[in-house]
Amino acid sequence: MIISMRPHATKQEVEHVCERIREFGFRVHSIEGEERVVIGVVGVGGDVTACLESLEATPGVERAVRISAPYKFVSKEFRKERTVIKVGRAEIGGDEFVTMAGPCSVENEKQIMETAEAVAKAGAKILRGGAFKPRTSPYDFQGMEGDGLKLLAKAREATGLAVITEVMTDRDVDLVAEYADIMQVGARNMQNFALLKALGRCQRPVMLKRGLSSTIKELLMSAEYIVAHGNSQVMLCERGIRTFETATRNTCDIAAVPVLNELTHLPVILDPSHATGKRSLVPALARAGVAVGADGMIVEVHPCPEKAVSDGAQSLTIEGFREMMQQLDGYIRLWKRERVAEFAAAL
Ligand code: PEP
Ligand code: MN
């Protein structure tokens, strides 16, 4: 169950509602938003129907809804309208297809500035670039860390692009939030619960990538952690999962996009780069992302992929990115028309 209090309900009203919930044998998880308090009712306590009916009649309560999914705040049952996250000039989850592009790792000033300018010209609205890198081998490049963040901020200044970059531990949340417009949680950290809780307390949008071996339900439960701890600006990312197939780096679960669109109001982003691991396959998957209703994509681009310190094989060249964007344009327009029609029908 989720209880939405009226905007500006008094503290006493909120406390009274919490007391009633406990009397019914449930636990309380409340979130104080800017306008209102939302209370999550959790646990396998007593009589859900009686509790719901009682709360609907309690002063200060605007709406009490039963939510059968284990993830509450992120479920469609809780919120029918799609979440739209405004970042710089982009509206993620709205009626545009938002492209985030840039190198896997920030390597030096020339590399990030050149890439940022090129991807902005080709239509990206958000610059990606890892400053803290989760690498399989401890001997591989681990990222420029703080210096990388500064270079990303410089590239934002020069191009007007917003910046997405990965945060790997709860200890780095404040530092990364100083520079990033979107905090990326990498696949390997999808269930780093200390990090998820810290991001819940941070007021920056978060992009949560699906874990290498995680189910869609687990992805949604991780998103629930962030929202339940106070940050509702979460988007999800399908980046491929591990299967027996070796022809691609990961197996892109393309169906995850429409499945998530059925289950949650959060925006869904596709990562065709990590999903395939091969430059030649990226444009086809990007088209698939548009077709299945992704809200955007995050794609790796490098001015000289053969010299990239990480993920060169899946990075598009600048020219390749430009071509892909031109080719995608028609698909996006078609998709946008459908999206606008869908919005109009829901009004
Ligand atoms: C990345 O975006 O460069 C990255 C490390 O992605 P993932 O966490 O999906 O492997
Ligand atoms: Mn990468």
Structure description:
It is a single chain. This protein is an alpha/beta fold and 347 residues long. The protein folds into two domains: 2-65, 2-Layer Sandwich (Alpha-Beta Plaits), CATH 3.30.70; 85-346, Alpha-Beta Barrel (TIM Barrel). It is 37% helix and 18% strand. Strands 7-8-9-10-11-12-13-14 form an eight-stranded parallel barrel, surrounded by six helices. Strands 2-3-1-4 form a four-stranded antiparallel sheet, covered by helices on one side. Helix 6 (193-200) links the parallel strand 10 (182-185) and strand 11 (206-209). Helix 6 packs across helix 7 and helix 10 packs parallel to helix 11 (318-346). It is globular and about 65 Å long. The two termini are 26 Å apart. Bound molecules: phosphoenolpyruvate and manganese (II) ion. Manganese (II) ion is lined by residues 104, 274, 300, 310-311.
Would you spell out the secondary-structure blueprint of this structure?
Blueprint: E1 2-5, H1 11-23, E2 27-32, E3 37-42, H2 48-56, E4 61-65, E5 85-87, E6 90-92, E7 98-102, H3 109-121, E8 126-128, H4 146-159, E9 162-166, H5 173-179, E10 182-185, H6 193-200, E11 206-209, H7 216-228, E12 234-238, H8 256-263, E13 268-270, H9 272-276, H10 282-291, E14 296-300, H11 318-346
Parallel strand pairs: 7-8, 7-14, 8-9, 9-10, 10-11, 11-12, 12-13, 13-14
Antiparallel strand pairs: 1-3, 1-4, 2-3, 5-6
This protein binds phosphoenolpyruvate (PEP) and manganese (II) ion.
Manganese (II) ion is lined by residues 104, 274, 300, 310-311.
